[in-house]
Amino acid sequence: MIVEPARAKLNLALHVRARRPDGYHELETLFAFVEHGDLVHVAAAPEPAFALSGPFAGALAAEGDNLVTRAEQRFVETFGGGAHAILLEKHLPIASGIGGGSADAAATLRALARLHDADLHDPRLFAIAAGLGSDVPACLLGTTAIGRGRGERLEPIEGLPGMPVLLVNPGVAVSTADVFRRWDGGDRGPIGEGPLLDVALAGRNDLEAPALAIAPVIGEVLAALGARPGVRLARMSGSGATCFALFDSVEARAAAASALARPGWWVAGTSLA
């Protein structure tokens, strides 16, 4: 049995540069990962089996198709390995901008590679990831990086492991496709260069405005996070609705977590990985 973490992904900055003819968007984004996330359990089995557990298992089960089983199928088509039993412990809300499904697919690929002694840097593994979704290659890499193109062209950079982070989702799921459709098409410039925090602070999330139009409560979360003592950066991640704040100290994060505990809101204290 292999147990692989599927850490939540943050877009510390997300610049949408252009619409592409293939239906995707040209992006520049600053990926980071936190310690909190889902867990994927994988074992060889006589026949394929997939099960769900955890606080958000019911929400994912209602969705039907999922990236974990697709990742397993494409791994077997490429590398072989027979059938597998997979258990996904779902601790992250779905459709929430922190890469839950992408992280789960990437963790599945890593677990299968470990189970079958495949090289985690095998280009075929990253090709599978790119075919599953724009964020899956970054989640497969699993380290702080600047992503370009759809997000699959990755440039690792030095991170800030251990920096306290608070994740807050106001209990709403936001469709990524709907958010991108509402993007106004304006190119507001490239992502910067330099140390991680400097790049993040100088950056922005171009999907914040269209997400706010769909779910105005995101603005309430951002305002509440931004007003907390010890906050270095408060921003929405991805296409929403999860927002995050980076803090100077664990104590400041803990105080913010208590202050933002509201009915229906998901609040998780964690740290950068």
Short description:
This protein is 34% helix and 30% strand. The protein is built from ten helices and ten strands. Helix 2 (67-79) packs parallel to helix 3 (100-115) and helix 2 packs antiparallel against helix 4 (123-132).
Describe the structure in your own words.
- By secondary structure, the chain is α+β, with helices and mostly antiparallel strands.
- Helix content is 34%, strand content 30%.
- The strands form two sheets. Strands 1, 2, 3, 4, 5 and 6 form a six-stranded mixed sheet that branches.
- A hairpin with a 6-residue loop joins strand 8 and strand 9 (243-247).
- It is globular and about 55 Å long.
SSE layout and pairing:
Layout (H helix, E strand, L loop, with lengths): L1 E18 L5 E20 L4 E5 L3 H7 L3 H13 L4 E6 L10 H16 L7 H10 L3 H6 L3 E5 L3 E4 L7 E6 L6 H7 L13 H7 L5 H7 L2 H10 L4 E6 L6 E5 L2 H10 L6 E6 L2
Helix pairs in contact: 2-3, 2-4
Rg from alpha-carbon coordinates: 18 Å
**Regions with pLDDT < 50 over 5+ consecutive residues?**
none
Beta content comes to 25-35%
Structural class: alpha+beta
Question: What would the keywords be for this entry?
Answer:
273 residues; alpha+beta; six-stranded mixed beta sheet; four-stranded antiparallel beta sheet; 10 helices; 30% strand
